[in-house]
Amino acid sequence: MDFVQLKDLRHNRFHWTRRPAKTHAITAVIALCSALATPTQPLAETRSHGDTLRLRNWQAPATLNPYLSAGAKNVEAASIVLEPLARTNPDGKLVPWLARSIPTLENGGIAADGTAITWRLRDGLTWSDGTPVTAADLRFTWEYCMAEGAGCAQAMKFDGVSRIDIPDAQTVTLHFDAPRPMPYQAFVGPETPVLQQAQFADCLGPKAQTCSAQNSAPIGTGPFVVKDFQPGNMAEFTANPAYRTPGKPGFDRVILQGGGDAAGAARAVLQTNEADFAANLQLPPEVLTSMQTAGGGRLLTAFGPLLERLVFNLTDPDPASGATGSTRAHPHPILSDPSVRAALSLALDRKALVDLGYGPAGRVTCALIPAPARFAPPQPEDCADQDLARARALLDQAGWRDTNGDGLRDKDGRPLRLDFQTSVNPVRQDFQVVIQDWWRQIGVETNLRAIDASIFFGSDPANPDTFQKFDADVQMFASAFAGTDPGNFLAGWRCENIPSPETDWQGANIARICDPGFDALSAQLAETADPEARAQLVQKMSRRLTDSHALVPLVHRGRVAAAAKDLEGPRLNPWGSPYWNIAEWRRAP
Questions:
Q1: Which of 82, 432, 497, 529 could be cross-linked to 509 through a Cys-Cys bond (beta carbons 3.0 to 4.6 Å apart)?
Q2: Does the fold of domain 306-334+348-378+403-558 match that of domain 82-212?
Q3: Domain 82-212 class?
Q4: CATH H-level superfamily of 306-334+348-378+403-558
Q5: pTM above the 0.70 mark?
Q6: Tens of pLDDT along 22-48?
Q7: H or E element that contains 214
Q8: Distance between alpha carbon 298 and the CA centroid of its chain, in Å?
């Protein structure tokens, strides 16, 4: 069969519809990959060897305030300017950034009873405007995120913080409402950097979303400052004159160009010499290999916790539900049935997806947390196996049958028909096509939607097409967690973190799962310090989520980026932003 792409201009998204069958879906996808792999003629423009670093991120950022969007494209772009107290390096080690050192029990930074952690700022830290960074900025950042009505996307990072004391201008103590054996959440990683109190003082609560000037040009401590920001298009940065390290950064200017697609971003670095670095290159392996032969750059790959997955909506997105659509007030009429979710999972061929979309940059997995290894539960022996017969049997047993012989199952007059959405990307559209075909073979009809990535991962609470609003039945995307401990990531799936109108559709529990048993395990994990016991709890929690089949792991993805052959410094970091050490980047002599 082959497919036609139709754009819905009202919602700025694409629909895919099936034409009469001519070839098997995989044959069509292979042909598409071959076409994409054909080298294109290089553009006349060549890379400037001046002091400008040119970045490509085809998922263009919509905001430079990571507290207003959990989307990686926004968090990563903001990390060029805003910095946290500590970061995780590519080796998985927590390293101090704005802090002098990492607090531990041994050095007295963590209270003996686990109820407090004390951080001390580096000496002489200043904002890019030359004013000093103080502990008051850290306390304000917490107040900003936790203010009622703020719709803070990172609120769970401050989970359990009851108060923050500032005994002096360089010291901040976070107090917890209960012992926290893993207190490295707030102000650790690119999601929770420090904001300048003077700039954001008038942006508390509901005003947070309306402070467009602050959200588009935050004052930071990073190696660059914002010069110009065009949401959904580009961002221009210049070197921070007040940066703390002499001789850095290595560039006077950074241009982050968004838009287009992953193939265009890769081509700009590897073939046409229009860019120096491109991240998130989600492309078929043969496409990247073909581009790399042009000799313009090199590919970087790093495996961490990044997981491509399906998420099933446990609530009804039907527009007839009005403002309470996609909320717990309306259980999903089809996907609330666990047998349907299990059957849809059984119909998948994960090995075929890895081969089709990622090659050596992908691995078969059935684990929600594929890394670090100590947290990954044992893989089921049949993880890679597709079982269409068993999937059909499950649907039969649940009463979903083809009552009129049209190939589509139904029950109580409702057809087994689903809307399946994801972002515009060649690999994801390939996946949609083959998954649609597999589901058709078990009697499920699927309408495919492909939404521009800047919208899908956007932060506009009024837009129905964001992945958190989830105005569909099934969606596909990838995410990871910062650092090497998944406790906070798993806490995101607690009942309290379900997106809703009250939270401006922020919240990590996108499937709308509400499992009191899971919440209890999360509370236990928050109080568990022993590494082995902690790993066992993480495995138990992740299995509970995947056994529900509301979250269906597809591929353990390696992060893939391209760097120009004359660009020194990039170290791809699977635990954080690709720009985590951008101050170290420079042009080779």
A1: 497
A2: no
A3: alpha beta
A4: Dipeptide-binding Protein; Domain 3 (3.10.105.10)
A5: yes
A6: 333 333 333 333 333 333 333 333 333
A7: helix 212-216
A8: 24
